[in-house]
Write a structure and sequence with these properties.
The structure is a homodimer of 340-residue chains.
Chain A: E1 5-10, H1 19-31, E2 35-41, H2 43-50, E3 60-64, H3 75-81, H4 86-95, E4 101-104, H5 108-119, E5 129-130, E6 133-136, E7 139-144, H6 154-170, E8 178-183, H7 193-204, E9 209-215, E10 226-228, H8 231-256, H9 260-279, E11 288-291, E12 296-299, H10 306-321, H11 324-338
Parallel strand pairs in A: 1-2, 1-4, 2-3, 4-12, 7-10, 8-9, 8-10
Antiparallel strand pairs in A: 5-11, 6-7, 11-12
Chain lengths: 340, 340
């Protein structure tokens, strides 16, 4: 079948490995006929999980690996020394063209470092970018870059804007996505040296719908679709988003448990509140793609459950179906010809 | 009276000027006998507001100014050309020693630029820093710097940590405040060039309780008392905090208004929820001090009501009473002697 998509699932990565990883992989295979998964990791542990399900065996492979990269391990060293880890073996399969993509819930640093070092960048892409989806009041936005490489240059940010736009439109289905750069004010003359240098380049960049600066205050209301920033700032945004949300929701819940009256009130609002809070939870959108590589790496939360793993596999499917990397390459050539 | 404190209130700055500014000033004067306020702005408008109150007239002065700096005006130009604005005249009063401090809810950029340009820095302080208080799950933290000067150097951040610690301990009453630097991971080797350079300097800095890197995710839970970062990152944190909070609370409120059942539930939880959300609202802590100047500038929200203005005036009182600027100067001398 020509549209067959082969996705590696790093079965040993993340807090819920291998159980939820295997479960998500099986669900994806059951639901989409063209999906083929390759589970990397300890064969006995994976087989024990697989025994819980009925599934098309011809579309689920196991590649035995003897090692596991732990969450707290220093990434560079882990990638270098653990050659037979579920992550490194999985990345190699993508590199060799034996798989189209890999989904991992494991050590973030190792996924980012390994993706770059083993799979390698698309020719012309200066730096890959990690682009998680963050929830907004009325949908979601793509935050690019939240990766491992900080102190970016302006040319990197321009490529992030391009790759992010392509991904947002082709994979997440947002037409003509609005691109904004994170800044400390809406005026063009505001910003740090990097933003000031990047702003005119984005303004001149063909093929993107650049709307100018966005202030952090306006991100949660969904002011733009592709939020461009360098990785340090992106990391702060991503994590603060989680942190403020977590703290506020915990406080709201505590206020509901205060006394009998509030407990009765809580029972009445529970399902409506739950639904609302669910829409502000990013896990429905799958994991974060590492864009700009010769293949796709999707990093999901360390705490991912089967549903997020499954969604991430569909992300990989769309990514291949839509020829995202081909479009990124064409875009680069086009821009080079225009001298951008 | 030796402990008399003279505070300028920029009566024309902010969305609720002059009404709430005048009201807050009168309340402070009524409540604290040693406070003397100087209202700068249009005399007729101020007098019209003052006519609503009974207050000790000998402790409320008006200094007539013919101009007002608008919210959207480019700051540098505004400070340069509007010499008779309520802000510039107020800053001059502090510069000349005719007032100890100024509170303004006006144009943020103009307050920051004007504070530096007119009042001037404490000798030895390389850069002033704006340090708002942000709410946390169990209290509050000081976020330093959120000012107008981006692209800071490591030596600036060290001074921010010192000034922030002094302010947190002496004005906000947090003993031996824990100082953390915003980073993208907890490990010492992580971070961008600035953070990597600053980390060992903070570790070696005497007189502060440095606890290492803090991730943005942990800020809302109150992981440290003084959060050090350069202004671009600080601005992103401050505004995203507001943005996520605002969006989430709006969503929670919408979920409560969904149907009759949730509306009844909402009525039962209302007061408890309100109390909880109030504790996550920074306005009770007054405005943000601009630290490192020869005098105190306190910037309050543009939307400040009388209560925030009043609290900000008490902040100025404590600032003077505790001799904060003297302590900052002593600290600098001490560190210079130690070769820091």
């Amino acid at each position: 079948m020509s549209d067959r998509i082969r996705v590696v699932v790093d079965a040993m990565g993340g807090d819920n490995a291998p159980g939820e990883l295997v479960k998500g992989a099986v669900q994806a295979v059951l639901d989409h006929e063209n999906i083929h998964v390759i589970l990397t990791g300890r064969k006995d542990a994976i087989e024990r999980e697989l025994a819980n399900y009925t599934y098309p065996k011809e579309r689920v492979d196991i590649v035995e690996c003897s090692e596991v990269i732990e969450t707290a391990e220093p990434p560079v060293n882990a990638i270098r020394t653990k050659k037979d880890s579920s992550l490194v073996v999985g990345l190699r399969l993508v590199k060799k063209g034996e798989a189209d993509a890999i989904v991992s819930a494991g050590n973030s640093g190792a996924v980012l470092v390994g993706g770059q070092a083993i799979i390698g960048r698309i020719k012309g892409i200066e730096r890959p970018a990690l682009a998680p989806v963050i929830p907004t009041a009325d949908g979601f936005s793509l935050l690019i870059d939240c990766g491992a490489n900080v102190d970016a240059r302006a040319s990197h940010l321009v490529q992030f804007a391009q790759m992010g736009s392509i991904y947002m439109e082709q994979v997440l289905g947002v037409k003509n996505p609005r691109v904004g750069i994170v800044n400390i004010g809406a005026e063009e003359e505001k910003g740090n040296a990097l933003v000031k240098e990047t702003f005119p380049l984005l303004k001149a960049c063909p093929g993107i719908n650049f709307i100018g600066s966005v202030e952090a205050r306006d991100i949660p209301s969904g002011v733009c679709d592709v939020i461009v920033c360098e990785a340090f700032v992106g990391n702060v945004i991503l994590k603060l988003y989680e942190g403020v949300g977590f703290t506020l929701i915990r406080m709201v819940k505590q206020s509901l448990m205060k006394n009998l009256k509030t407990k009765i009130g809580a029972a009445l609002i529970q399902s409506s509140l739950k639904e609302t809070l669910k829409s502000f939870d990013g896990s429905e959108y799958g994991g974060a793609p590492l864009l700009g590589l010769n293949g796709l790496v999707v990093k999901t939360h360390g705490s991912s459950k089967a549903r997020e793993v499954e969604t991430s596999i569909y992300q990989c499917e769309l990514f291949k179906k839509q020829n995202i990397n081909e479009i990124i390459r064409e875009n680069l050539i086009e821009n080079n010809e225009k001298g951008v």
